[in-house]
Amino acid sequence: MSLDEPFNDLPLDQWVSTAERHRADGARLVQMTGTARGDHFEIMISYDKDYRCANYRTRIPRDQPELPSLSGVFLAAFTYENELKDLFGISVPGLAVDYGGNFLRTKTKIPFSGDVTIKKEKPKKPSAARKEAKPANASDTSGPEV
To answer: Which of 33, 45, 62, 93 is the most buried (most CB within 10 A)?
Structure first.
């Protein structure tokens, strides 16, 4: 993906019609993924034609997490949609192949459906071994004696 291929906002009511338009134009489904935000889920999707990607982002409210299936347009979408269902608890009406919440095996059922907490990472302190290590110079290396 080049820098001039941003993710464009896509209203949820245009989710299926956008997929149908890309399919009619000969594009292929490249990827679909999701992320949890404070009050919604973001679903990102990419289509490709002639090595150019069209990328979209739609938002699904947490209080009504439902995403219409694209598996009737691109059958392979069922894999991504089952992942979204298993990881985020998103309902996907019209799913062509529905694993019923058993597509992925996770330790926690629907692991990304809870509250979103952003943690700041503490800066790492250099270890004592790194402080004592000296950079090797070509003249410092010793090889086998000839």
So the answer is: 45
* Across 28-37, 47-56, 122-131, least confident range: 122-131
Average pLDDT of 1-8? 74
Q: How far apart are CA 68 and CA 77, in angstroms?
A: 11
Query: For position 58, which CATH number holds?
Result: 3.30.460.80
Task: Output the pLDDT for position 145.
Answer: 55
Q: How many domains does the chain divide into? A: 1
Query: Which residues touch 55 (CB under 8 Å, ≥6 apart)?
Result: 1, 5, 6, 7, 8, 44, 45, 46
Instruction: Kindly state whether residue 128 falls inside one of the protein's structural domains.
Output: no
Of the candidates 58, 62, 57, the one whose C-alpha atom is nearest the C-alpha of residue 40 is 62
Give the integer Cα–Cα distance in Å for 59 and 1. Answer: 22
Residue 116 has what pLDDT?
58
The token pair that represents 80 in the structure block: 């991504």
Domain boundaries, position 42: 7-110
- Residues for the chain: how many in total? 146
6-26: pLDDT as tens digits: 899 999 999 999 999 999 999
Whether 79 contacts 55, CB under 8 Å: no
